[in-house]
Design a protein that fits this description.
The protein has 324 residues and is α/β, with parallel strands linked by helices. It is built from 10 helices and 15 strands. The strands form 2 sheets. An 11-stranded mixed sheet has the order 1-8-2-3-7-4-6-5-9-10-11, sandwiched between helices.
Length: 324
């Protein structure tokens, strides 16, 4: 199969209607899309990504009206769910709720809940709106690998496995959506993302950051977003000394200038943000990890970022990228 990069949105809709896969841009990362109500189409996602069937998918709805069609909204939490949806949809918040029978079991990995959101990306919104049905769309990469933030990244990951990649330039946020569950008037964060703990706490108590071996939502495995090059986390790269003949790349939080004493120790340096801006760092994270991973290094050294606000989501990705 030849994989084509294009901007032809009509072609994307036609392929989705035929039960085929298309890589689409979202505001978070590029997603591997299929008609969420077509079990055979969804099965192709797992095959193309080599994704285990026990890992559920996110369902992207065309609009708010679809929520009641695929989700049985709990009466006791209806008001809180409505407030979160009004505030953050369209946008990078995914909510896990009891599913209706219309959602195939393959989408939810057999769970009685489904993860849903509405994407804010204009191209994605146009395509899902024209299709007129929800789209299942995990990140468009092989399972466990670094998520794609450009169409070229998708091509590198899935060439020959899917027919079409819709190119709309780099994604805005650069990391996957925040995933929450709403239970008994409280919010449980299942995966950190662009919608921060601080933003969510304005609506209800945050009971926990779920770290569990039982998968209840996408993106909860301890090892994920993993480059092929080993990655090690440090507080400050100044104190690091490479071994003899060891080629090490630095993913820097503290701004490093070309030729300064610290940078000279490394074969390559990528600064997440020269201004220490966490939103810029998040947008650059997966792209720079991919660039360093492509250099044939012995090790990638990543400096920890502050675990406040969006920094918590960045650290979540780095910690799991370092887990082997």
């Amino acid at each position: 199969m030849k994989t084509v990069i294009s901007t032809d949105r009509d072609a994307a809709v036609e392929l989705l209607r035929k039960g085929e896969l298309v890589a689409l841009p979202t505001e978070t990362v590029y997603g591997l899309a299929a008609d969420a109500l077509n079990s055979s189409a969804v099965a192709k996602i797992f095959e193309a990504k080599e994704r285990p069937r026990f890992d559920p998918l996110i369902v992207h709805m065309p609009n708010h009206e679809w929520l009641e069609k695929i989700v049985d909204v709990p009466a006791g939490d209806r008001q809180l769910i409505g407030k979160l949806a009004d505030k953050f949809w369209p946008g990078p918040l995914t909510i896990v709720l009891p599913k209706r029978e219309i959602v195939p079991d393959i989408v939810t990995a057999g769970l009685d809940t489904v993860a849903v959101r509405i994407s804010a990306h204009l191209v994605f919104a146009e395509i899902v709106g024209e299709l007129g049905e929800p789209i299942a769309a995990p990140s468009a990469n092989r399972f466990g690998r670094v998520s794609p933030t450009t169409a070229q990244h998708v091509l590198e990951e899935l060439y020959g496995r899917i027919p079409l990649v819709i190119d709309a330039g780099p994604t805005e946020h650069g990391i996957e959506s925040t995933i929450v569950a709403v239970r008994d008037g409280r919010i449980e964060v299942l995966r950190r993302g662009p919608i921060t703990h601080e933003q969510l706490s304005e609506f209800a108590d945050i009971v926990s950051i779920a770290l569990t071996e039982r998968i209840s939502a996408p993106g909860q495995l301890p090892s994920h977003y993993t480059p092929t090059t080993p990655l090690h986390l440090v507080d400050d790269a100044e104190s690091f000394s490479p071994q003899k003949n060891q080629r090490v790349g630095l993913l820097a939080w503290r701004p490093r200038r070309t030729g300064d004493r610290c940078s000279l120790k490394f074969a390559a340096v990528r600064n997440l943000s020269h201004l220490r801006d966490l939103r810029e760092a998040a947008a650059n994270l997966f792209r720079y990890l991919r660039e360093l991973d492509a250099l044939g290094l012995d090790l990638i050294l990543a400096e920890r970022v502050p675990s406040r606000g969006l920094g918590a989501a960045i650290m979540d990705r780095l910690e799991r990228a370092s887990h082997r």
